[in-house]
TrEMBL record:
InterPro entries: GPI_mannosylTrfase (IPR005599). GO terms for biological process: GPI anchor biosynthetic process. It is an enzyme of class 2 (transferase). Signal peptide: none annotated. The keyword Iron does not apply. The chain crosses the membrane at residues 34-56, 152-177, 198-222, 273-294, 306-325. One of its GO terms (molecular function) is alpha-1,2-mannosyltransferase activity. This is Mannosyltransferase. The keyword Membrane applies. Its EC number is 2.4.1.-. GO terms for cellular component: endoplasmic reticulum membrane. It is found in: Endoplasmic reticulum membrane.
């Protein structure tokens, strides 16, 4: 929570301070729903450049071509969509990129120093004259230290990453191991150096560890300033949030509440979904290395302490580890973006194989190489697939997927401003993501206020109520609505409490909802009327149907459901490809890419 607090809370406090003056002098409100949406994303955009900088510095350190790798990284929809959103995974990716650069830079620095030290020691042993021995000894002693290089920085990055998201352990563990392994097997680095690095690394992590524990304990109320002043501090006043995270997620039943996925989801679904051809190339390259290992072709495998070995472990160790958890989302893997681009992006430009990869030629292998793998053929289709897939996925996840949720929140931010003070607003949602109430602009009901006239303390009463039912079946959703209407009507009669009840669902479910209201109209006295449709919007939980009811001027009042017409009109039965039928078909499908808002009311008996 410390990273989130200092990364978002402090900038928002500065924004609120600036908003007072901009609103007073210029009439510009910097605390509206749009600014609340855009401002943190601008901060995340600035943070995302850490990934570009880390990739650039790694390429410069190892003499790699950085232009095309940076272009590949910038064109990835992972950077355009995920990295610019306020996910803890996006912060995790930036910290992993920094840690990757730190480790890779320490590795090449250690390799250079060790090589120079061994070279000078060899010259020292072979020197015959005392003057030469003194000169080589002085040169050897002037070499910079490397064993504990950037230890404090790495320990701090690791602690920050774990407190931001404890899965950072899986991404940082192979990187830290490579940092500990530097120079092992040479004459100047022994196992004692390995143990010393571990001890110093752990000791270097203690200050930042204590700082994060204290900040989290104060934030969550376990440790208060009054207790600090009275020195009444015990072990129960401290909370270690990563431990609580691990305790909860290590139980399969808890993670199953968010969805259960098979073990292969990350490897076969999420990696290709995030990185398309690069992800497929990475998986096949790993399989090819496993095949070489199984056939005892060890000379073709990368060394454990090499740059390729570092990147491979940074990619596949977290993928394999996270695959053991039953809940697997694509965003969990985005910290592998930089090592994946570093290792495999050049294949988009130079091809899958620069030379004939098979030891024993055959007609099929020759055909495969000349028509699929060779540098003259493969870059053409690889680049087309890469750019096309990323453009489509950027439009889908950046604009279409759940695109109506923000518009819905902005709509209710205006409704809250114009409503009467004695009107409560109830919003029921289903088959959509959670509505961020910060966009609605609601004043806090937890803050204790003071009346300036009489000094009496009070809290604001809650006047906006949100009920989120996930992917609840529409029959059960109808019963929830009926129960909520009954409760609101009772309060309206007993306490004279006015209310407005709304329902927001994907418009692809509007036909089924209309059918339920129509079938229940004889027994229930509630009705629904369309208020507005927010475009574009798509919920994976409620995909549009190509064949269905055509909403030609829908009026969702049950008494007037005849205003809807089927796609297949009688005059179109003989000609399935008539213009009218095709237009109705297109209109029906387009209508389903929206988020529809209904007003739920009691059907008054006339």
């Amino acid at each position: 929570m410390a990273i989130t607090y200092f990364g978002l809370k402090v900038p928002f406090s500065l924004l609120r301070f600036a908003s007072m003056y901009s609103n007073y002098y210029l009439g510009i409100n910097l605390r509206g729903s749009y600014v609340t949406l855009v401002f943190p994303r601008l901060l995340m955009v600035a943070l995302s450049f850490v990934n570009d900088w880390s990739l650039y510095r790694i390429c410069r350190s190892y003499g790699l071509q950085y232009q095309f790798r940076l272009l590949t990284l910038a064109s990835s929809y992972v950077m355009l969509v995920y990295a610019t959103h306020t996910f803890s995974n996006s912060i995790e990716m930036a910290l992993c990129s920094l840690l990757l650069y730190t480790v890779s830079d320490c590795m090449i620095h250690s390799n250079t120093v060790i090589y120079q030290r061994e070279f000078l020691e060899e010259k020292y042993r072979k020197a015959q004259r005392t003057v030469e021995k003194v000169r080589f000894y002085k040169l050897k002693m002037s070499l910079p230290s490397h064993s504990l290089n950037r230890c404090v920085l790495m320990a701090t990055l690791c602690v920050a990453g774990v407190f931001n998201r404890p899965t950072f352990l899986l991404f940082g563990m192979p990187l830290v191991f490579h940092w500990l392994l530097r120079g092992m097997g040479t004459k100047t680095v022994s196992f004692a150096d390995f143990n010393l690095r571990i001890m110093i690394f752990v000791l270097s992590a203690i200050p930042s560890l204590v700082l994060f524990i204290v900040i989290d304990s104060i934030y969550y109320g376990y440790l208060t300033m009054a207790e600090i002043e009275r020195q009444e501090i015990g072990i129960n006043n401290f909370v270690v949030t990563p431990v609580n995270f691990i305790r909860f997620n290590i139980i399969a039943e808890n993670t199953a509440q968010h969805g259960v996925h098979p073990l292969y989801t990350h490897v076969l679904v999420n990696v290709p979904l995030l990185y398309n051809v690069l992800g497929v190339l990475a998986i096949f390259s790993l399989l090819f290395m496993i095949y070489r290992f199984a056939t005892n072709d060890y000379t073709s495998l990368p060394r454990a302490q090499s740059f390729v070995g570092l990147m491979l472990s940074a990619i596949f160790f977290p993928i394999i580890s996270l695959s053991l958890i039953n809940h697997q989302e694509a965003r969990f893997l985005i910290p592998i973006t930089v090592p994946l681009v570093l290792l495999h992006a050049p294949k988009l430009q130079v091809g899958l194989s620069s030379s004939y990869p098979f030891k024993v030629p055959s007609r099929f292998k020759d055909f495969l190489y000349h028509n699929l793998l060779c540098p003259a053929v493969s870059p053409k289709y690889l680049l087309k697939i890469w750019y096309t897939a990323n453009v489509i996925l950027t439009l889908f996840y950046g604009f279409l997927h759940q695109g109506g949720v923000y518009q819905l929140a902005e709509y209710f931010s205006r409704q809250v401003d114009v409503r009467s003070s004695n009107v409560h607003i109830h919003l029921v949602t289903s088959h959509i993501y959670s509505v961020p109430q910060c966009f609605v602009g609601l004043p806090s009901t937890e803050t204790l206020l003071v009346n300036p006239d009489n000094g009496q303390k009070y809290r604001r009463t809650k006047q906006f109520f949100l009920y989120e039912y996930g992917s609840l079946e529409l029959e059960q959703l109808y019963r929830k609505l009926k129960l909520l209407v009954d409760v609101c009507e009772m309060r309206s009669i007993s306490a004279n409490q006015r209310y407005r009840l709304y329902l927001a669902i994907p418009s692809s479910l509007s036909e089924r909802l209309n059918d339920i209201f129509q079938n229940r109209s004889t027994a229930a006295l509630i009705k629904h009327s369309q208020v507005r449709v927010f475009y574009p919007h798509l919920s994976i939980e409620a995909m549009p149907q190509v064949f269905g009811q055509h909403p030609c001027g829908i009026n969702t009042d049950v008494d007037e459901l005849d205003d809807t017409c089927p796609i297949y009109a009688l005059e179109d039965e003989q000609n399935p490809f008539s213009v009218g039928r095709l237009l109705k078909q297109f209109s029906s499908v387009a209508h389903q890419f929206g988020l529809i808002l209904y007003r739920i009311e009691v059907r008054r008996i006339k």
